[in-house]
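Re: beginner question about structure tokens

> Can someone show what the tokenized structure looks like for a real chain? I only ever see the sequence side.

Sure, here's an example I had lying around. Input first:
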Amino acid sequence: MGKRIPLSTFIVISVLFCIVAAGATYGIYAQVIAPSQSSQAAEQADGEAITDDEDAADASTDSKDDESADDTTSDTEAAADSDKDAAAASNDAQETEPADTAEAAQEPEPTHAFSCEYFYIDMPEGAGTLEVIDAGHEEGGFMTYQFGRTSANGSAGGAMVYVGNEPHTGSTTNLGTTSEGYIISASEAGAGVFQTPDNPYSSGAVLTPL
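And the corresponding structure tokens:
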């Protein structure tokens, strides 16, 4: 039979083995596990610091946006108030315009007893009344018009007016020439209608070429 190991020696060997194993375990922890945990803690701390910085930056941006929105609202309200003031001033100015200016703008333009594209006719005071019998038609190369007049003393007369490139063959009076070169002539009967061109004191209608 082999020689037995004394119990005391076995105990000593076991203790030594435990000591060596414990030392090896501590070395692994100190060299591998502990540094890894420290690195993770540092990274977590850095992450939290970055998050705090980002939150602070977002808060600052929001504050600036709020201030900008407030400024924009203030500017808009100020512009609206300015427009209201300008509109009120304009209304006041319009209300205080002289009344005679408005009345002058509404004065009717002078009217004629008769008008067309070639001439117009006025009736001076004392000339009587004018009657338009034919307001114009084309006949034989002439524009032909017919008028009647009742004088202030009750006498009556009539006239045919012709507008053409030359005096009408049946005309007795030349009444002028238009700006386009057409000749206006007339033939009258009875007391006539128009003033005699060579007698400004005669009574009658006044024809003015256009």
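Each token stands for a local structural state, so reading them left to right follows the chain. The mean pLDDT is 75.
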